Structures are given as C-alpha cells and as structure tokens.
Amino acid sequence: MSFYNDIIQSTESKRKLLAILIDPEKIQLDNISSLCEKIKKSPATHIFFGGSTYDGNNFNEIIKRIKQNLDLPIFLFPGDYNQISEEADALLFLSLVSGRNPEYLIDQQIKAVEKLEQSSLEIIPTAYLLIESGIETAVERVSQTKPLNRNDLKTIQNTVKASEYLGMKLVYLEAGSGAKIAVSKEIIESVKEKINIPLIVGGGIKSSKEIENAFLAGADMVVIGTAFEENPNFFEI
Ligand code: 1GP
C-alpha cells in the first residue's frame, strides 16, 4: 500500500482531496477526541500535521491520539526536521523551492536523514512554493525567504516545472497559514497545465466557495487550517 499511489489514483479518477491541517501548537490533548468527531463529519480525506514553530513535547502523543480517534492517513507537514514521528503514516519531504535559503532547500533534509533511515514513514518528495499573499506569513518569517510574486506566472511555472524535472512527486502552492489572499485561480491554472504530478493548494482558504474555486482551477488537494481551527463547525456550515 502506498499513500502516494492513493493520491495518484484519486487524481486520475478526478476525485478531489481535502486535507485538514492540525498544528500541534494550537491543539490541547484533551480536545483531540472532540476535534476528531468534527473531522469525521467533514469531507476530509487526509490529516496534515505540523507547524512552523512547534517546540513542545507532545508531538508523538497528539498524533497517537488522533490515530486512535480517526481513520484518515496522517501526513507530516514539518516546519523542521525535529517534527518527524513514527506515529504518522507519511512525510511530505518538503523543499522550499520558491526561496533561496539553503537551510530549507536542502540542509533541513540532510538533518532529517538519520531519523528517516530508522523510520517506516512513506517519504513523498514535495516541491513547496510560497506565493505572495498580502501579509508576512509564518513560513516567510521562519524560513527567511521571500514568496514568489503572485503576478509573475512565468517564474512560478518554471519553478514547478524544474521541481518536476528534479523528481518531486507533489507540488504544494502555499499562500501561508492565515494568508489574506489565497493562491489565485490564474496561478493554479497556469501551474496545473505545466505539471503531470498532483497539485496541493493551501493558505488563506476560508469558505466552501474558495475550496470549490481551487478545485475548479485544477487543485487536486486543498488544505484547510485556520478556517477549521477558528470554527470547528466550518464544514457543517
Ligand atoms: C498552511 O496551507 C496551510 O500551511 C493552511 O493554511 O491555515 O490559512 O488554512 P490556512
């Protein structure tokens, strides 16, 4: 069984995917079962787990409890190499290809190797592109990189194509958590026409209309974090 192959099969059959992002920093152990009840009632197909700045001790325990309460694949979406846990199912092995900071292009990945060699996580190489979104987001602050200009479609297209040539298996277009402006329809369309690998879009998506628009423009998977954090009834509405 491969979680990546499941994504490929879904994209081939045009089944859209929805990931709920859980940030360990913003979750209490005691609230996990009620949160999972909400997730069960949502259309979520995946859980993404990770955050830009987490340095607490409950990382493994939170994932374990989510797993006990929920039957969805858990993908690590790590802010740094410490956020690797055997309790999860797969790891988005991110390289921040929109930026020019070697720490997030390759150094963090090298630091992760010894842990990954001991692990049975499925590793999915993922091109991670931060797109300009109206505010300075945590990704920008932590990575000390600039996002790509949202009007420069050519550079965005060439960056995703180069990532595909390099062997990346997923592209993640990121406006940044809590972004003012989500990744635009034009950007999603222009990226989708360039690549043959699945496309994930997240950051600043706050309504079912915006989810729908991202899917219509060509996103294979949409990620929802803040909107669900702020309102656990988001999907009911
Ligand atoms: C952040 O793309 C995710 O990495 C989700 O963003 O929190 O804005 O939904 P939001």
Automatic annotation (TrEMBL):
InterPro entries: GGGP/HepGP_synthase_sf, GGGP_HepGP_synthase, GGGP_synth, IGPS_HisA/HisF. It catalyses: sn-glycerol 1-phosphate + (2E,6E,10E)-geranylgeranyl diphosphate = sn-3-O-(geranylgeranyl)glycerol 1-phosphate + diphosphate. Its cofactor is Mg(2+). GO terms for cellular component: cytoplasm. SUPFAM superfamilies: FMN-linked oxidoreductases. It comes from the Bacteria. Keywords: Lipid biosynthesis, Lipid metabolism, Magnesium, Metal-binding, Phospholipid biosynthesis, Phospholipid metabolism, Transferase. Sn-glycerol 1-phosphate binds at residues 172-178, 203-204, 225-226. Its EC number is 2.5.1.41. GO terms for biological process: glycerophospholipid biosynthetic process. Mg(2+) binds at residues 23, 52. GO terms for molecular function: imidazoleglycerol-phosphate synthase activity; magnesium ion binding; phosphoglycerol geranylgeranyltransferase activity. The keyword Transcription does not apply. Prenyltransferase that catalyzes the transfer of the geranylgeranyl moiety of geranylgeranyl diphosphate (GGPP) to the C3 hydroxyl of sn-glycerol-1-phosphate (G1P). Belongs to the GGGP/HepGP synthase family. Group II subfamily. This is Geranylgeranylglyceryl phosphate synthase.
